[in-house]
Amino acid sequence: TESLSTLTVRPTDSSRALTGTVSTDATAALTGAGTVFLTELAVGDLILVQVEYLKRVTAIASDTSLTADSAFVTTESGLTASVFPPLTGTVTTNATATLTGAGTLFLTELGVGNQILVVGEPNFRTIIAIADDTSLTTDSAFYSSASGLGATALPSAMRVDDSGGSPQVLVTTQGNVGLGTLTPNGQLEVGGEGSG
Predict the structure, then answer these.
(1) What's the Rg (C-alpha) of the chain?
(2) Among 29, 102, 131, 147, which is most buried by a count of CB atoms within 10 Å?
């Protein structure tokens, strides 16, 4: 019998909703209505617009006008947006589950069980292993192969580690509980030996 010796409680979400709504026009421009971009954002921040991919802010012209690092896919108005703190450095995807960093601090800024979102990728992925400050593995492959990308992370809501530092219990930001699994797909999922 192995004892659980470490309880790690992390904040559930480090993102914050932006004031007002935004409109996209299939360009890199983002137009706000009731927004305060100059107060709530800085060049380099990562933003996620409803129904879009994560983008990096490259210029802020006013409280209602900014430019992102690439074009938005849609032409829609009345959308919500959130700002996410960027991870240190940049990352490279290679259409596998491995993420390689340049100037990154994966061991300091991330933990197994956290979710990571890379600029230009549509979905958060769960981190299942961190080899060092510049290499980690996720639960599913990235869609693209690209370098120099920004990334952000959502920590798990709670994690209980064994005496060796391996996660044994994980509560996701969606409230799912994993016992012996880092990627619970329902309210409660039990993995590992004796789960069958």
Answers:
(1) 18
(2) 29
Instruction: Give me the residues paired with residue 22 across strands.
Output: 32, 79
Question: Residue 127: is it exposed, middle or buried by C-beta count within 10 angstroms (0-12/13-18/19+)?
Answer: buried
Residue 1, pLDDT above cutoff 50: no
Q: Which residues in 147-168 are b (16+ Cβ under 10 Å) and which e? A: eebbbbbbbbbbbbbeeeeebb
How many whole angstroms separate alpha carbon 186 and alpha carbon 98?
25
pLDDT tens-digit map of 103-158: 999 998 888 888 899 998 888 898 999 999 999 999 999 999 999 999 998 776 67
Provide the edge-to-edge strand list for the sheet that holds 4-9: 4-9, 158-162, 167-171, 177-179, 188-190
* Spatial distance between the Cα atoms of 68 and 86, rounded to a whole number of angstroms: 14
Distances (CA, A) of 144 to 126, 130, 164, 173: 17, 20, 34, 25
Pick the closest to residue 86 from 128, 48, 49, 139 (CA basis).
Answer: 48
